[in-house]
Amino acid sequence: MTALEVRDLHVRLAGIVILRGVSLDVPEGGVVGLVGRNGAGKTTTLKAIVGLIPVASGAIRLDGRDLGRLAPHERPALGLGYLPEDRRLIGSLTVEENLLLPAWATRRRESGEHLAFLYGLMPELTALGGRRAASLSGGQQKLVALARATMNSRRLLLLDEPLEGLSPALARRLAEVVRGLPGVAVLVTESDANRMRMLTDRIYTIERGEIVRDA
Ligand code: ATP
Question: pTM for this one?
């Protein structure tokens, strides 16, 4: 079953056409890649799905529901999580407090359960839980930011260049975690198709705001 459907998406920013007819599908529980050079329109595609930028035309559906009819703040309730490229932790809070932030924001009661799930998925976080986020290495912070993004992503997780700047070992670990998320559809961007293959072979290629190939 298809979780995310994007159909003929057009986006204009400041009068410039950025996306011209982007269509893609992410199946339930599947990982799909969107590969393109800098400026090709990857971030714009993710932001349009989250609702951070307006769409000129086209449709975005999650589990058959038209996201275009929902305000951005209503979309996380459908189980949509987003990890932006400049994923940031709050350095003065502990790792565990950072992980709980999205649950506090949406007043979710089951945050304790989700935390236990995350520690099961990424046992390395258990040892880091009490440390201040600022004391972690850049790569460790990215793993924590990924874990945090899964908090609201029961159905769909959007990852913007999560492998960028990671050591090969950490990139492999991140890929393993992403592929192990049960039942979550994942759309992930990357500038390097070879690196993307660590995550998935299902790849759309975007050039100048258009999908030119899907593998
Ligand atoms: P990168 O890895 O550099 O982020 P990308 O594929 O994610 O690349 P986008 O950030 O989606 O690319 O940008 C696509 C195009 O849209 C670029 O040419 C960019 O300059 C342009 N663009 C992005 N945001 C705006 C904006 N707010 N106003 C006008 N143009 C924009």
Answer: 0.92
